[in-house]
Amino acid sequence: MLFALLCSIPSVAQKADTAFISASAGRAQQLYTNAFQGQARLFNGTEYRLYQSRNDEFPLYLRDDWTNGAVLYDGEHYDNVSLVYDISTDKVVVEHMLNGAEIQLIAEKVSWFSMSGHTFVRIDGDKTNGVKSGFYDLLYDGPSKVYAKREKMLQESIESQVIVSRFEEKNHLYILRNGVFVPVKKKSSVLKVFSDRKSDVKSALNKSKIRFRKDREKAIVLAATFYDSPKN
After folding, report:
1. Is 55 helix (H, G, I), strand (E, B) or coil?
2. Residue 2 domain-assigned?
3. Are residues 137 and 225 in the same domain?
């Protein structure tokens, strides 16, 4: 009797392990299915093919790889989305969680998306606000807002009878004041925007010891932040 009982223990344990594994797999599958169903509306764009680099050049923002981010798409907020931002074409691309397909989101349905600590918002440009439609990096979100338009242009040249491809990156900076996007590049253009507090803003920039030409974005954000702060 004892021998029979001992022999039955491995069989019982094996059945228990099998049942546990089956239940765990079932829960994992359910979680995966729920996650996919929750993001199903996100995967309704058009097919996109990532640029195939010849050397180390790439058209994406910051890094040549998928990154984890968030997006407000067609009125729905999605977290933990695998995405890239192609700044050469101004396209937001997500990776399908089931088959790995690269899907280009419909630009007009993207209110904003965030990645690598940056938030890009969709702005509809017209003759009155001074910018073209597209995605703009919101650098400072105060009464005076600061935006950057990130762009890359493909440049090709022949060196030693070999075609060499490069992406030239340009960043156009704007301060939003009274509904108009004012382009700013030099310190003088920033001070002109904040002309009613020109001397105070100039003094704040000088005290910060930020070198304007070397770090324009940081300097412009500081100027806007100072301008929006209460006067002493």
Report:
1. coil
2. no
3. no
Q: How far apart are CA 139 and CA 173, in angstroms?
A: 10
pTM of the model: 0.81
Do 202 and 178 share a structural domain?
A: no
Can you give the residue range of the structural domain that contains 216? 185-232
Q: Which residues of the chain have pLDDT under 50?
A: 2-3, 5-6, 20, 23, 25-26, 28-37
Number of structural domains (the chain) is 2
Q: In this predicted structure, what is the pLDDT of residue 17?
A: 58
The type of residue at 58 is F
- pLDDT tens sequence across 84-104: 999 999 999 999 877 888 999
Q: pLDDT tens, 14-36?
A: 555 555 455 454 454 444 444 44
Sheet holding 46-47, edge to edge: 46-47, 102-104, 91-95, 76-86, 67-73, 110-115, 118-123, 134-141, 145-159, 162-177, 180-184
- Domain shared by 114 and 176, yes or no: yes
Say whether both 78 and 158 belong to one domain. yes
Residue 154 is predicted with a pLDDT of 93
